[in-house]
Description:
mainly alpha, Growth Hormone, Chain: A, 17 helices
Amino acid sequence: MSGGAQWRVVAAVAVLLACVAGFGFYSLTVFVHALTADGVFTLAEVSRGSSVYLVTAGLGGVAVAALLARYDVRWVLSGGAVLMAGGLALLGRADVSSELYAADLLIGLGQAGAGVVPGTTVVARWFVSNRGTAMAVASTGLSVGGIVVAPLVGLALQHRSLGEVTAVSAVVFLVVCLLAASFVRSHPPVDETTEDVQQQGMSRRQALGTLTFWGVSAAMTLAVLAQVGGLTHLYTMVSERRSASLAGGALSAVALGSLSGRFLGSWVLSRVSSSAFFRALLIAQSGALAVLAVTDDGVVLLAGSALFGLTIGNVILTHPLLLGEVFGLRDFARVLSFSGLVSTLGTAGGPLLVGQLADGAGGYRVGFLAAGTASLLGAVVLQLTARERHLARTAAFAPAC
């Protein structure tokens, strides 16, 4: 197998993830601020729209996993790019809640088709060894999207209308994604070693019948509830406490932390188990959210955002690695997508929880503390299901009789 071909696929996936994260996940917090600033939508309405987007992304991931088994990945990625671009364009023109929710639905479907499930699946197929490093490199695109794209979107919104910014974003997103998708290939050239590895592990049905699957998925649900709830409202929270410019800096700090954290994470994962690393991340994320909840100091807000970013990047990286280690590659895309669907409960509930608590309490302190508590509970769930993970992995890789 050509090393150059492997890393071209990784680079293309990184570009796709940068676009999806930059114009979607990380810009979500900027769009929340823009959509509520002129009074057309309430914070609760926009938070519900964010939940629509996130639920749709989770549900769409299951459909995408099925499509990956039948169609060339380039068609799946391109279709996702078209849908997300349409959602971005519609978002800037929305002036009633039904249009807002329709835009969020399209963005969610597009993210499912061009995002983590197809990207992670392709990288896992192409790498037998060095999979953690390859995943880390590909997932740096998520951080680059936050470092480069989201702050540019925020800056543009200070000078142009939301409709103008989203229209340009849609065009740029579509062109770059279609170009990147053309370099992705579904499978590496087949040899005996890669074919054997592709067939190892449990089927989706077998995996869903284990306590391990539900334990990992529950921990991930709590992790992303905390993560997405905090990230969605970070820009608005820092803007209210300090300024819009510092809020942009906080987003950049999150993204920089996420980028550097992935490389640190790939080094740590070569020395400790994925489950132990996952627990440590959730505890650290809880601490970061607690700091953001209680401080008004600009430097501490930036430091807390950077620590928050360190955990964000590695949680997203560790989740598929842990599932792959336990259940193998036999049905990886479907196992990952179903776990992602379960965690959608947290992804969708996070923005709504933090937003509702902010509306009720007149500020973000209670909401961010609640998010930090959820992250800590996720670490407890992982600890309680440690024995079951060992048993499931032994069963998944046991030689056939």
